[in-house]
């Protein structure tokens, strides 16, 4: 078996790829924490009705500000012809812009471009800026937009795909370019493809954009035309493109399995490449109670996903709260030392729920936060029952993790650790690292007795032994790490 060379790449613990053994340790999925002033954007203005939904949120590196393009409309339920239907009072929805310095506190800039009830003092964006072919397409769904950091042409810094959604016509895809994310120009060769003759109709789609791992553009779509495929359920597929014009037929990559409740389906799957790993948030749709919530799935190749954690990554609120029925997560944004997951929360999903809620029905924009690398951590369980011997100087209350053999590039070992969690057991938090040969023999000067304890949280704590942190003498060699820790979470490690 070839030796794993991790170079200077950060190593997460979302799977067991680099783990040889664990003692009194368990990997834990850490649900994202909702910010205190949720929702961060809710219907407040006369033109926003009772329903605001994010279409595109990004941090503009040029302007150093978060920008949110969102839709606003009024929805209600109506009883008619023996069934309940959803009525939209401003269809198509109004498109608006919001700005934020921190992603939490949002402002509505006065754009002065569109008149509403006799005034242009609002943040409404002209429809022509977003859908330049409106009136030509039979019905265009909300484009899936991305900020394309791979693109070198400044006029194409943003890209979007939109689909015609007329059920009586072929479903076609249209490509758009933009320099700023708000003023769009259609690709001259539109439509770029027609899904019907090749693969049937696509369902809800999440545009990943440029995939730095597989070096291609990618999109994750509901690969079953709203459960009308052979499996009779909503499934997730992946299609790829070298230029966002020519696309492969989508391959189904995620399906419900025997560990899911029978009514489980997957509605969409926002995905990012994070530290060399695909982090996906499949929207779990329960058809019995018509609710949505995101879970976490991880992959190293973009096709084969592990779903080791079957609990919500963002938990729905109380039934009457804005996110009590459904949480539709957006693509996570890595910003500073946090990972921001914006989402559309609703307290209704079915027309019947909308009718029953009446004026209390709403949809708003929520935000949940994860610390850097914090999707999954290694947590110590209750104290060990081991013993101390001359060859293995363990301390009884420590949990342990031993890695597989690997080689590295760099001179120091950096750790992302969260400590000061006294509720996990008695005694102060502590983390020590031991260096081993591939056969578990100790590397002189880097044993447990030499390791300086790490007792404080740090995104970038540096391991040391008797005050020395330089590991350049071991660079390129095959080694293993043994982590001893208690009352802390270990998120990642990296040699730099």
List keywords for this structure.
single chain; 496 residues; Jelly Rolls; elongated; 5-stranded antiparallel β-sheet; 6-stranded antiparallel β-sheet; 40% strand; mainly beta; Tachylectin-2, Chain A
Unreliable parts: 132-141, 383-393
Strand content: 35-45%
CATH architecture of the domain at 134-313: 5 Propeller
Q: What is the first-to-last residue Cα distance?
A: 25 Å
Count every helix, treating DSSP H or I runs of 4 or more residues as helices.
Answer: 3
Number of separate strands: 39
Report the principal-axis shape.
elongated
> Biggest β-sheet: count, sense, barrel?
6 strands, antiparallel
Question: Quaternary arrangement of the chains shown?
Answer: single chain
Give the averaged pLDDT, no decimals: 88
Question: What's the CATH C level of the domain at 134-313?
Answer: Mainly Beta
SSE map:
Blueprint: E1 4-7, E2 11-12, E3 19-23, E4 25-29, E5 33-34, E6 51-60, E7 65-73, E8 75-80, E9 83-88, E10 94-100, E11 106-107, H1 127-130, E12 144-147, E13 158-163, E14 172-178, E15 185-186, E16 193-194, H2 195-199, E17 205-211, E18 216-222, E19 236-241, E20 251-254, E21 264-266, E22 271-274, E23 277-280, E24 283-286, E25 291-294, E26 297-299, E27 305-306, E28 326-329, E29 333-335, E30 338-346, H3 351-357, E31 363-371, E32 376-380, E33 399-403, E34 406-408, E35 413-418, E36 430-436, E37 458-462, E38 480-486, E39 489-495
Parallel strand pairs: 1-34
Antiparallel strand pairs: 2-39, 3-33, 4-32, 5-31, 6-7, 7-10, 8-9, 10-11, 12-13, 13-14, 14-15, 14-16, 17-18, 18-19, 19-20, 21-24, 22-23, 23-26, 24-25, 26-27, 28-30, 29-30, 30-31, 32-39, 33-38, 35-37, 35-39, 36-38
């Amino acid at each position: 078996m070839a030796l794993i060379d991790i170079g200077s790449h950060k190593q997460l613990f979302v799977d067991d790829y680099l783990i040889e053994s664990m003692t009194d340790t368990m990997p834990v999925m850490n649900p994202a924490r909702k910010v205190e002033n949720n929702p961060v954007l809710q219907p407040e203005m006369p033109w926003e009705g009772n329903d605001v939904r994010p279409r595109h949120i990004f941090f503009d590196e040029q302007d150093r500000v978060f920008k949110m393009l969102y839709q606003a409309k009024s929805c209600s339920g109506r009883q008619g012809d023996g069934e309940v239907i959803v009525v939209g009072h401003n269809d198509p929805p109004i498109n608006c812009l919001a700005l934020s310095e921190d992603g939490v506190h949002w402002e509505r800039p006065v754009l002065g471009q569109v008149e509403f009830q006799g005034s242009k003092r609002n943040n409404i964006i002209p429809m022509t800026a977003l859908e330049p072919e409106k009136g030509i397409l039979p019905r265009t769904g909300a484009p899936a937009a991305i900020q394309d950091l791979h693109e070198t042409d400044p006029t194409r810094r943003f890209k979007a795909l939109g689909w015609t959604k007329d059920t009586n016509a072929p479903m076609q895809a249209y490509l758009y370019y933009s320099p700023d994310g708000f003023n769009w120009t259609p690709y001259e060769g539109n439509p770029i493809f027609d899904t019907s003759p090749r693969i049937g109709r696509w369902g809800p789609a999440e545009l990943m954009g440029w995939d730095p791992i597989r070096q291609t553009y990618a999109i994750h779509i509901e690969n079953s035309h709203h459960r009308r495929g052979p499996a009779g359920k909503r499934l997730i597929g992946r299609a790829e493109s070298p230029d966002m014009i020519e696309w492969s037929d989508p391959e189904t990559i995620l399906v419900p399995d025997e560990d899911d409740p029978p009514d489980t389906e997957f509605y969409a799957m926002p995905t990012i490449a994070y530290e060399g790993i695909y982090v996906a948030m499949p929207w779990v749709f329960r058809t019995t109670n018509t609710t949505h919530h995101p879970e976490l799935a991880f992959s190293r190749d973009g096709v084969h996903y592990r779903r080791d954690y079957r609990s919500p990554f963002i938990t729905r609120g109380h039934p009457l709260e804005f996110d009590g029925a459904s949480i539709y997560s957006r693509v996570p944004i890595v910003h500073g030392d946090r990972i921001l997951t914006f989402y559309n929360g609703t307290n209704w999903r079915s027309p019947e729920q909308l009718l029953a809620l009446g004026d209390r029905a709403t949809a708003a924009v929520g935000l949940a936060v994860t610390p850097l690398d914090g999707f999954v951590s290694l947590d110590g369980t209750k104290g060990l029952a081991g013993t101390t011997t001359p060859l293995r100087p363990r301390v009884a209350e420590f949990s342990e993790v031993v890695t597989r053999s690997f080689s590295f590039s760099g001179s120091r070992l950096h750790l992302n650790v969260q400590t000061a969690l006294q509720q996990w057991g008695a005694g102060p938090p502590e983390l020590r690292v031991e260096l081993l040969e591939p056969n578990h023999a100790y590397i002189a000067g880097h044993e447990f007795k030499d390791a300086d304890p790490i007792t404080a949280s740090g995104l970038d704590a540096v391991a040391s032994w008797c005050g020395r942190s330089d590991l350049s003498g071991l660079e390129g060699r095959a080694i293993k790490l043994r982590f001893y820790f208690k009352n802390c979470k270990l998120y990642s490690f990296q040699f730099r």
